[in-house]
Amino acid sequence: MLRCSACLSWNRIDNRQLPLTFGLGATGYLCSHGERGEVGTTDHEVSNNGPAERQGLLGNLAQRLQDGVRATAVALGWSHAQRLAAIVESSEDAILSVDLGGTIATWNQGAGALLGYEADEVIGKSIMMIVPPGRDDEPGILERVARGEHVHHFETERRHKDGSLIPVSLSVSPILDSAGVVIGASKIARDISARKHFEKALGKRAEEQAALYQFTDRLFRAATAQDIHEAALDAIIRALGCERASILLFDTSGVMKFVAWRGLSDGYRAAVEGHSPWTRDTTNPQAICMDDVGAAELEPNLKAIIAAEGIGALAFIPLTVNGELAGKFMTYYKGPHRFTAEEIDLAVTIARQLGFGVERLRGEEARQLLLGESRHRIKNILATVQAIASQTMRHARGEDGLQTFMARLHALAEAHDVLTTENWDRAPIRDVVGRALKPFQADGRQRLTVDGPEISIPAQTSLMLTMCLHELATNAAKYGALSNGTGQVRVWWEPLGVESRKIRLTWQETGGPPVEPPTRKGFGSQLIESSGIDGSGLDFRAEGLHCKMHLTT
Question: Which of 78, 245, 306, 463 is the most exposed place for a label (fewest CB within 10 A)?
Answer without folding.
Answer: 78
